[in-house]
Write a structure and sequence with these properties.
By secondary structure, this protein is α/β, with parallel strands linked by helices. It folds into two domains: 173 residues, 3-Layer(aba) Sandwich (Rossmann fold), CATH 3.40.50.720; 107 residues, 6-phosphogluconate dehydrogenase C-terminal like domain (6-phosphogluconate dehydrogenase C-terminal fold), CATH 1.10.3660.10. Helices cover 50% and strands 13% of the residues. Helix 6 links the parallel strand 7 and strand 8. Helix 4 packs parallel to helix 5 and helix 7 packs across helix 10. It is globular and about 65 Å long.
Length: 292
């Protein structure tokens, strides 16, 4: 697989990592990045995540063979509308957003007008650190990379997008946009809300001043993802609010059930709560499917 020119619309952790992976694996003749701030141009070029960067969106996407949107979700539609006139017919377009339903609904028609097929993607890779300085060429190795084509997307193009993520070291998986959003609401978006609330509650100034000193490794590990970009997670939560609210509701019900067992001193129920969690987590970590 080889693209003469790939354009990254947004060059942060994910965009920068794609750029490094493309260059390391020699999958692109040229990698160009669109950035919002002039100061980011020198940083991206110095770090080598792109061959060149620019604040001119139309120039960045012109003559591109593949365009990848790596911006926060709320920015994608406006940027798509701005750049679509500069795309040549046949240019392949994808994204790395964490929500797929709204992205497919909004972006697919925009690019269809200029005969540029849009096939949404979501590599399950990243971290709490942001910006091109955090980018890694191996970020996508063994990562599940989900592709969520529209109902009318030609199978040949879907397979091409899957081959792209495989070429970066990922493990492609095909889902519908709604399937994707329901699954990641539980496995990705809910854990972030939980980590954020733990940080909000435990580190509240309403608690004694000694509280932070007693937050050790367990607290640090459990709340690591709460250090992620607030802007990005605001967009994700709102874009996937239907599925996230449903998952959050079930999660709260489960916690309330545990609280009732705790209040009544039901040792067996409390023990089963922790035993089941350990069993399922251990099975997941070993690569198996959790069972009862």
């Amino acid at each position: 697989m080889y693209f003469p020119k790939v354009t990254l619309v947004g060059v942060g952790l994910l965009g920068g990592s794609i750029g490094l992976a493309l260059k390391t694996r020699k999958l692109a003749g040229r990698v160009e990045g669109y950035v919002r701030r002039p100061a980011s141009i020198a940083e991206c070029e110095r770090l080598g995540v792109v061959d060149s960067a620019t604040t001119d969106l139309l120039a960045a996407v012109r003559d591109a063979d593949l365009v990848i949107f790596c911006t926060p979700l709320a920015q994608m539609r406006a940027l798509a509308e701005q750049c679509s006139p500069a795309l040549r017919p046949g240019t392949l377009v994808t994204d790395v957003g964490s929500v797929k339903g709204s992205v497919v609904t909004e972006l697919e028609p925009i690019f269809a007008k200029v005969s540029a097929p849009f096939i949404a993607s979501h590599p399950m890779a990243g971290g709490e650190k942001t910006g091109p300085a955090a980018a890694r060429a191996d970020l996508f190795e063994q990562a599940v990379c989900i592709v969520t084509p529209g109902a009318k997307t030609p199978l040949k193009l879907v397979k091409q997008m899957e081959e792209f993520w495989a070429a970066l070291g990922g493990r492609p998986m095909r889902l519908t946009p709604d399937q994707h959003d329901a699954l990641v609401a539980r496995s990705s978006h809910l854990p972030h809300v939980v980590a954020a609330e733990l940080a909000n509650y435990v580190l509240s100034p309403a608690h004694p001043k000694e509280q932070p000193a007693l937050c050790a490794t367990g607290f640090r590990d459990t709340t690591r993802i709460a250090a992620g970009s607030p802007e990005m997670w605001r967009d994700i939560a709102l874009a996937n609010r239907k599925h996230l609210a449903r998952a959050l509701g079930v999660f709260i019900e489960d916690l309330q059930e545990f609280q009732r067992a705790l209040d009544s001193g039901e040792a067996k129920a409390v023990d089963e709560f922790f035993e089941t969690a350990k069993h399922r987590r251990d099975q997941w970590a070993s690569g198996g499917r959790p069972t009862e």
